[in-house]
Amino acid sequence: ERKLDPDKCLMIGNDLHTDIAGAQNAGLATLYMHTNLTPPDQRCADPNLQSETHYEYEGADWQTLADLICAL
Predict the structure, then answer these.
(1) Alpha-carbon span 16 to 8, nearest angstrom
(2) H-helix or E-strand containing 64?
(3) What pTM value is reported for the model?
(4) What is the pLDDT of residue 12?
(5) Which of 45, 52, 53, 65 would be 58's cystine partner, CB 3.0–4.6 Å?
(6) Would you list the DSSP string of 5-42?
């Protein structure tokens, strides 16, 4: 049986209440992406809210997103 090290995982999700909250409760780092699939009652991503274990991304520039993920 293989087990993942939570310190080496990143949950990427577009729903703050299910994807991001669930992953944070499990001890995972998170990247919140506000997209056209995000529930309409949720706020936009705020890149200024970043910490060592939580990141936010707003927009549709996939290269910038890829660069962000590679820098983590």
Answers:
(1) 21
(2) helix 62-71
(3) 0.84
(4) 92
(5) 45
(6) -GGG-EEEES-IIIIIHHHHHTT-EEEEEE-TTS-TTS
